[in-house]
Amino acid sequence: MSDEGEPEGLQSLARGLGVLRVLAAADGPLTLAEVAHAAALNRAVARRVLLTLVDVGYVLARGREFSLRPRVLELGEAYRASLRLPALALPAMRRLSAATGQSISLGVLDGAEVVYVQRVVGARIVDVVLDVGTRVPAHATAIGRVLLADLGPDERAAVLGAGPLGALTPTTVTDPARLGEVLDRVRAQGYAHIDEEFEPGLTTLAAPVVDDGVVVAAVNLPLSTASLPPGGVGPDLVGAVVAAGREISAAVAEAAGRAGAPPGRG
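RESULT FIELD:
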């Protein structure tokens, strides 16, 4: 297949993945010439790809030979963890739903959107239920702000700068500078709270799910603004959501064979 017309970044990624597949299929270390032949690359390109993979820690160079390093297992582990996360989250989500009577959602970040990957339907007749697979703008949701808050400055700027930030209600924060301040606050306090920015009459809390120090998902508790007591959301509800996030984080850590739960934020 020709690389003609493809952006250089895509070519480089495809070549890197091709070299990793070649090394993974080999019975032992390979020379530069062997990698180049098996990956259908010229020697100069194969050398650049190999040296890049060495620099980022996925390939070991020993003399004239190259082989995979154990760090490459992180790629498969991340995929496996993402597949089992919804099941691991269910017990904590069910407990939070039983305690509050509300539907509980779990979401992950995909570009500038949140994708819901798990839900537990609450007991209340009037409730907010978003189906698994539903996509919503990350900047206007509590769950999205938890996920955006964990991104580094460059990655956050790239995500938020990919397109205009739409207003879902008159109170939705759409100014990038102001939203950046909001996200910094979310990161510092360890949870997000939005009030009628996603939908009129809806207040939402969300807390992070952490896997090995990285926020990989967030758990979400929607509340009717009209049903809140005087003073609005209290520390008991915030604490319940944060505790659910930590419980799911502990389940993820245990499934991955790590001792103890990742420390919670805030």
